[in-house]
Design a protein that fits this description.
By secondary structure, the chain is α/β, with parallel strands linked by helices. Helix content is about 45%, strand content about 15%. Strand 2, helix 1 and strand 3 form a beta-alpha-beta unit. Helix 6 crosses helix 7 and helix 10 packs antiparallel against helix 11. The longest helix is centred in the C-terminal third of the chain and has 17 residues.
């Protein structure tokens, strides 16, 4: 089992929970944290025991952006090089290069449980998750404009597609702070919840995904959605038709139908 220094990893009942673990720095982002998260997510994506991946933060924050020591090092001309982690071949990885493209290429659903401060690169990481739930009082900010930076790591492409250009420009240009409650109103997160209810809700959703739906269906649909940004409607429809034909031959399709007819829980295998 891999030993991590800046994240915690726990797998239970098909749910891999990863916790950013620098609570004294509000889980500020470092290259070590990036490498460990990427390794855990890429590995979890290939692990048959993992059906769902949840990422949250230790203590009061989710991730308060890049560690200021790292930013000062960049200003002085020094920067740690990130160790490249071998990833399985993926057409999605080709479509989404860059720091967080591996999250789209992961066949397992990724849920961000945003328990507190979420800023800068921490916000970008959360946006690449498939589902996002936030504590209602969690504080968000893009932060870049207040640091003399730009819309990094694809957020200038992704954010308008999630919430619309006008709202995206507001958040990027002003770098203003907003709450988890407003994030839900903007459509940036799926739901904002009282802090004490956040993880219970996320774990309930994760358990549903791990036990009640086909892992194969999830992987295919996740890939379909992310590819549509680069497809015409007719191309997306043709791919859907081809994938539907393939699904008819799978164990999960037969099990899904049989479990419905027999009025019992399905025992999907992802095959």
């Amino acid at each position: 089992m891999t030993e991590y220094t800046q994240i915690l990893s726990d797998t239970k009942d098909g749910v891999l929970t990863l916790t950013l673990n620098r609570p004294d720095r509000l889980n500020a982002w470092t290259d070590v944290m990036h490498n460990e998260l990427k390794h855990a997510i890429v590995t979890g994506g290939q692990d048959e025991a993992v059906r769902v991946i949840v990422v949250t933060g230790a203590g009061r924050g989710f991730c308060a952006g890049a560690d200021m020591d790292v930013l000062q090092g960049i200003q002085g001309g020094a920067r740690d090089r990130m160790t490249e982690i071998e990833e399985p071949a993926s057409d999605l990885r080709d479509l989404y290069p860059g720091r967080f493209g591996y999250m789209y290429a992961c066949p397992k659903p990724i849920i961000a449980a945003i328990n507190g401060a979420c800023a800068g690169i921490g916000l970008i990481f959360a946006l690449f998750a498939d589902l996002r739930y936030a504590a209602a009082e969690a504080k968000f900010t893009t932060a870049f404009a207040q640091r003399g930076l730009i819309a990094e790591h694809g957020i200038g492409w992704l954010l308008p597609r999630l919430i619309g250009e006008t709202k995206a420009l507001d958040l990027l240009l002003t770098a203003r702070k907003f709450t988890g409650r407003e994030a839900a109103e903007l459509g940036l997160v799926n739901e904002a919840l009282p802090t004490g209810e956040l993880m219970g809700n996320v774990q309930h959703t994760a358990h549903h995904l791990a036990t009640m739906v086909s892992p194969r269906s999830i992987a295919v649909m996740k890939r379909q959605i992310r590819k549509t940004y680069f497809q015409s409607y007719s191309d997306a429809l043709a791919e859907a038709d081809a994938e539907m034909e393939k699904s008819f031959t799978t164990f999960d399709f037969k099990e899904g139908v049989a479990s419905f007819v027999e009025r019992r829980p399905a025992a999907f295998k992802g095959q």
